[in-house]
Design brief:
Number of helices: 9
Distance between the termini: 52 Å
Number of strands: 6
Structural class: alpha/beta
Order of helices and strands: HHHEEEHEEEHHHHH
Oligomer: single chain
Shape: elongated
């Protein structure tokens, strides 16, 4: 099995891909949110009915690039609702509490000065997580605030979706778009991506092709960074040799030169040899 160097969940591919190709993100969010028709018949948004779709945080802070522990998220406004899509790779503990914090921050920040509480938008957090979180077999869980005895819904303005990738079924049909998207996030090897690609589902092929373009660009960027680092290393090394030559001209000992430059005794002795 050939491991993927970049996956849809462990690096900046997730955010860069969906910000650069918002139509892919719109289709992904459609399949995630539309589960509420099955779970509670609350939204029932079809792709054609998504009239407003705005990505509110398209930037990726430079300090997070390449950090496998960074929290990858995309904040969106979908038909007046606030939707926060989270991808979490490692279970760093207290994840439900963290998700509630993300929700509270999004929900409360939507209330402008002078507005009534009724204007607060429905706010949904969708978490795609690469670890088991709940003691159940189902890969999808949906939470809302309910009265514990009567199960009366307190408000539909709070909602949490959790998709646990380790619980996905091994066989996915080409007609199950939600599972296909989640399988794309779960894929760790070239073979797994190729299995999805062979289904010839247009949107999946588009996502995989776009990710391949990103991987090639990232490979070239990594090579450029390596070449730059190597050139800097060589320049610093050459500088050390120049300093060592000057110290030899001043009749300083090899031990003294080693302490200043960090060059080995053999390297220093090679400078004593006539050209």
């Amino acid at each position: 099995m050939r491991k993927l160097e970049y996956t849809f969940k462990t690096d900046t591919l997730f955010k860069m891909l969906f910000v650069q190709y918002p139509e892919l993100l719109k289709k992904l969010v459609h399949h995630c949110i539309n589960l509420e028709v099955i779970v509670a018949e609350l939204l029932g948004i079809s792709l054609e009915d998504i009239g407003q779709f705005v990505i509110r945080n398209p930037e990726m802070p430079p300090e997070n690039l390449g950090d496998k522990f960074c929290r990858l998220d995309i904040n969106m406004t979908v038909n007046g609702q606030r939707v926060d899509l989270e991808v979490q790779v490692c279970n760093e503990g207290d994840y439900p509490e963290r998700v509630m914090y993300y929700w509270a921050r999004e929900f409360s920040s939507a209330l402008l000065t002078g507005q009534g509480y009724s204007t607060l938008p429905r706010t949904i957090v969708i978490s795609i997580i690469d670890f088991p979180l709940f003691e159940c077999e189902e890969y999808h869980s949906f939470f809302q605030p309910l009265e514990v005895m009567r199960h009366t819904l307190l408000s539909d303005k709070m909602g949490f979706h959790f998709f646990e990738l380790p619980k996905l079924p091994s066989d996915v049909g080409e007609d199950d778009m939600l599972l296909l998207w989640l399988s794309l996030f779960k894929a760790e090897t070239e073979e797994e991506l190729e299995k999805i690609k062979k289904m010839e589902v247009p949107i999946m092929s588009q996502a995989i092709t776009a990710s391949s373009e990103f991987r090639e660009k990232e490979r070239l960027r990594a090579k450029a960074r390596h070449d730059e680092a190597q050139a800097l290393h060589n320049a610093r090394r050459e500088e050390k040799f120049d300093i060592a030559k000057k110290m030899l001209d001043m009749d300083m000992t090899s031990d003294q030169i080693t302490k200043v430059t960090g060059l080995t005794q053999a390297e220093i002795e090679s400078l004593r040899m006539p050209i």
